[in-house]
Amino acid sequence: MGDDKRKDADTLEEMSAAIIVLLVLLILIFIVFSVVFCLCFSKIKKQSKVILEVLNNNMIRQQQKDHQIDILLRNQAVSQPNVNQAGEQYLPPQLPQML
Hints:
By secondary structure, the protein is mostly helical. The protein has one helix spanning 2-79. Keywords: Membrane, Transmembrane, Transmembrane helix.
């Protein structure tokens, strides 16, 4: 009987040691994944800032081009009042004359 109790105690100690080792491994895996996630997240954050900056610059350039086109069209309309935007001769509508 003494041997059975001793074997049970040894088995219990081995199981508790195995559980402790597994818990330590799980904690280490969690730490590694946390570090990897933080590194990836910071990289993604930096890339998204760069992408937003590029998009903003492109939008500003497009607005400037649109503004320049508007100015050119206005200048053309002032210098050629009888020409429409397509460059075709334009005659303003006339009121019908009363007979």
